[in-house]
């Protein structure tokens, strides 16, 4: 259309209710960036969080890494030693006042140890947890638990070529180390990597896990069309954690044929060594707790491979000047399964650990 003789300016774009010039775009970008940075920090002040001496990350929040980072910072400020590991440290079959850290505190006569275990935290995930969400664990005493169950088969060791779901996939190496059974799409892996340096995605994940049944708000509103999405937000963290005080394997003494992997090829052992290096580089004093593993369950055929694997791990720790403790095998009745002690078992383990003289 010829606009000659028409005083109205030519419209170069389709109609929009709001158009921003360059200066306004810059202002909007600065405002959004400030909001993304400040909102999680403000929420940290609003949401009540006063962990007691036996606190452990509630089972419902075991994939809430933003909350773990929050707790980790407080624990490092308050306690001399942090105890890291999987559900054995967390205390899968016992309440929070019957865990290893609790009995260590009880026997020491002071609150020195923090329970920083998370259910299902295998070594490949633990390295990511420490690298991206455990940065406040520095210049501390650290008890680092190695559960040999993660090396008891190629599947546990993440070596199988067949894809399967494992715990905490967001924490494992997405690109730098190949994990054969981890076959997430490239776009999903890239999104995980891009989110890690920023607090805001972790905070939104925290809201989804805690208040919206592990769904994002759009999905939650579809499932609950007549509910106000602000109603579930009560700024109170779970007071209780879920644990199983009844479940127990059918037998803790019958022989089982474990398909132990070799230390030279083990992925989990490789990631565990990476965690040691990471913690040492941050000035931490490390004590590796190897086990306790329920050796009563191992049959004769796989016992030799187990003993060889354990001795190779001990040798590596000794050669690299890393303090470690291999506890004596507990009585069979003090195990709930292959690696989780009963409450009495935890107390005995704590006693053995203190008697070893390796804890200051």
Topology (SSEs and partners):
Elements: H1 22-46, H2 65-78, E1 81-84, H3 87-90, H4 100-108, E2 113-115, H5 123-133, E3 141-146, H6 186-195, H7 199-211, H8 217-223, H9 267-281, E4 285-290, H10 300-319, E5 323-325, H11 343-355
Parallel strand pairs: 1-2, 1-3, 3-4, 4-5
Broad structural category = alpha/beta
**CATH domain class of the domain at 65-189 and 246-355:** Alpha Beta
Q: What is the CATH topology descriptor of the domain at 65-189 and 246-355? A: Rossmann fold
Mean pLDDT: 89
Give the overall shape, derived from the CA principal axes.
globular
Secondary-structure element sequence?
HHEHHEHEHHHHEHEH
Number of strands: 5
Q: Distance between the terminal alpha carbons, to the nearest Å?
A: 86 Å
Number of H- or I-type helical stretches: 11
- The radius of gyration is 25 Å
CATH superfamily of the domain at 65-189 and 246-355: SGNH hydrolase
Query: Strand content of the residues, in percent?
Result: 5-15%
Helix content: 25-40%
Tell me about this structure.
This protein has 360 residues and is of the alpha/beta class. It has a domain at 65-189 and 246-355: SGNH hydrolase (Rossmann fold). It is 39% helix and 6% strand. Helix 4 crosses helix 11 and helix 5 runs parallel beside helix 9 (267-281). The chain starts with 21 loop residues before the first helix and ends in a 5-residue tail after the last helix. The model has no long low-confidence stretch (mean pLDDT 89).
């Amino acid at each position: 259309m010829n606009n000659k003789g028409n005083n109205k300016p030519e419209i170069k774009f389709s109609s929009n209710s709001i158009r921003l010039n360059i200066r306004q775009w810059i202002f909007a970008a600065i405002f959004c960036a400030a909001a993304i940075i400040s909102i999680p920090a403000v929420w940290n002040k609003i949401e009540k969080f006063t962990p007691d001496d036996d606190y452990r990350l509630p089972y419902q929040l075991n994939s809430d890494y933003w909350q773990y980072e929050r707790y980790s910072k407080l624990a490092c400020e308050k306690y001399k030693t942090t105890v890291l590991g999987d559900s054995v440290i967390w205390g899968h079959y016992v309440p929070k006042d019957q865990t290893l850290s609790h009995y260590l505190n009880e026997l020491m006569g002071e609150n020195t140890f923090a329970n920083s275990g998370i259910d299902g935290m295998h070594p490949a995930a633990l390295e990511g947890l420490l690298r991206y969400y455990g940065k406040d664990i520095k210049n501390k005493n650290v008890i680092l638990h190695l559960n040999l169950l993660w090396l008891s088969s190629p599947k546990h060791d993440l070596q199988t070529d067949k894809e399967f779901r494992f715990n905490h996939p967001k924490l494992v190496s997405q690109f730098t180390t190949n994990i054969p059974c981890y076959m997430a799409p490239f776009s999903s892996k890239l999104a995980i990597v891009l989110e890690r340096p920023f607090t805001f995605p972790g905070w939104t994940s925290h809201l989804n896990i805690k208040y919206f049944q592990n769904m994002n708000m759009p999905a939650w509103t579809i499932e609950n069309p007549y509910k106000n999405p602000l109603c579930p937000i009560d700024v109170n963290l779970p007071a209780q954690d879920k644990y199983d005080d009844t479940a127990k394997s059918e037998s803790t003494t019958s022989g089982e044929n474990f398909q132990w992997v070799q230390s030279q090829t083990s992925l989990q052992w490789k990631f565990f060594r990476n965690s040691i290096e990471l913690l040492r580089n941050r000035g931490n004093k490390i004590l590796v707790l190897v086990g306790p593993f329920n050796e009563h369950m191992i049959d004769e055929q796989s016992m030799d491979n187990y003993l060889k694997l354990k001795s190779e791990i001990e040798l590596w720790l000794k050669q690299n000047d890393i303090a470690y403790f291999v506890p004596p095998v507990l009585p069979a009745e003090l195990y709930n399964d292959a690696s989780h002690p009963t409450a009495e078992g935890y107390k005995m383990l704590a006693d053995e650990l203190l008697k070893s003289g390796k804890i200051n």
